[in-house]
Amino acid sequence: VGFKGRDVLSILDFNREDLETLFKVADDIKANPFKYSEELKGAVLATAFFEPSTRTRLSFQTAILRLGGSYIDLGEIERSSIAKGENIADTVKMLDSYVDIIVIRHRIEGTAKFAAEIAESPVINAGDGRKHHPTQAMIDLYSIHTFKGGIDGLNVAVMGDLKYGRAATSLILGLTLFKPKALYLISPPELRIRPEVMEYLKQAKVNFIETSKLEDCISELDVLYVTRIQKERFPDPAEYEKVRGSYRITLETLKEAKDDLIILHPLPKVGEIDLKVDKTKHAKYFEQATLGVPVRMALLKLITRG
Ligand code: CP
After folding, report:
1. 232-285 tens-digit pLDDT
2. Is the CB of 165 under 6 A from ligand 1?
3. Atom of ligand 1 nearest to the CA of 289
4. Is the CB of 53 inside a 6 Å radius of any atom of ligand 1?
5. pTM for the complete prediction?
6. Contact assessment for residue 235 and residue 164, using Cβ atoms and an 8 Å cutoff
7. Relative to the CA of 127, which ligand 1 atom is closest?
8. Whose C-alpha lies nearest to ligand 1, atom 6?
9. pLDDT for 224-233, tens place per residue?
C-alpha cells in the first residue's frame, strides 16, 4: 500500500515489500547523501516527546535537517502549556496546524494512534509505553539486512525484557514479515513475551523458542539483539528487584559464538553488556544507531513525497 501520507503507528502497518522499499531508499541515501539534501525543502517536522530520548528525537531532527527541511520541538513538558492543564488533543491540533509531520513519544499506550485520529498530517509513533516503537524496528531490520546481507534463514535471538520492552516487541513482530530460520526469545521467566505477542507469533507460524539461557543457543546465533530491563515500566519496584542484573553479556559469554555473530541493541544500554564487548567485532550497536538517520530520512521522504 506504500508510504505516502501514512501514519506510522506499528511495524505491522507495513508489509515486507514496504520495508524492502524503505531499505532501498536508505541504501541510496547512504550512497548519495547530497542527492537528497533538498528533498524536503520547506517541510517542517514536530518532535513531541513526553518521555526521555536521545536517539529517536535527535535522529528524526537530524533526518529532516539533512533532507533540507526543519523542525520544531515541544521541549520540556514543564515549559509547554500542558503544564497549565492543556490536553494532548488540543496540543496535537496546534502542532498539526504548524507542521507537516508529527513525531510523538508518550508513556501511555495508544497515544500516537489517538494523535493520528486528530491530526491530518502523518503521525509517527516514536514509542508508546511498552507497546510499539515501529521506527526502531525499521532500523533494527535494516541493520540485520545491512550487516548480514538479508534476514531470511538467520538464527535471531531477542534477549532481555520482552514483557515491557517496546523495541524488543516491535522487532519480534517485524521479524514475522521475514523468514528467519529460528527466533530465540531469551529472558528471565518474569519478562517473557506478552500473551498477545505469543499469539501473533503462533498465527504467523514463526519457529520460535523461549528460553532463559543464552548458553543454550549462543553457538547457533547469527544475530543477538540485547535489550535493557525497562525499570521505569515495572508497576511494582519489588518486581524489578527480582530481575535486576539477571543477565549480562561478557567476553566469556561469547566464547562459543559464531565468528560472524552480530550483537545489536536499541540503546541505551545500562550494564547488560560488558564494556569490553564494545571493542569486539561482534558489537554493531553503535553502527546500528547511526543507521537511524538514513532509515528515518528514507521514511520521511517516503511518507511525504512517496
Ligand atoms: N532506541 C531508542 O529509542 O533510544 P532513545 O530512547 O534514546 O530514543
Report:
1. 999 999 999 999 999 999 999 999 999 999 999 999 999 999 999 999 999 999
2. no
3. 1
4. yes
5. 0.97
6. no
7. 3
8. 53
9. 999 999 999 9
- Bridge-based pairing of strands 70-73 and 123-128 is unpaired
Residue nearest to atom 5 of ligand 1 (CA): 53
Environment class of residue 13 by beta-carbon count within 10 Å: exposed (0-12), middle (13-18) or buried (19+)? middle
Burial of 50 by CB count in 10 Å (0-12 exposed, 13-18 middle, 19+ buried)? buried
55 lines ligand 1 (CB under 6 A): yes
pLDDT tens sequence across 144-194: 999 999 999 999 999 999 999 999 999 999 999 999 999 999 999 999 999
Q: What is the pLDDT of residue 154?
A: 98
Q: Are 263 and 277 in contact (CB under 8 A)?
A: yes
Cα(222) to centroid of ligand 1, in Å?
A: 24
Among protein residues, the one with the nearest Cα to ligand 1's atom 3 is 56
194: left (phi over 0), alpha (psi -120 to 50) or beta: beta
Q: How far is the CA of 266 from the centre of ligand 1 (A)?
A: 7
Peptide bond into 268 cis (omega under 30): yes
**2 — pLDDT class (breaks 50, 70, 90):** confident
Side chain identity at residue 297, one-letter code: M
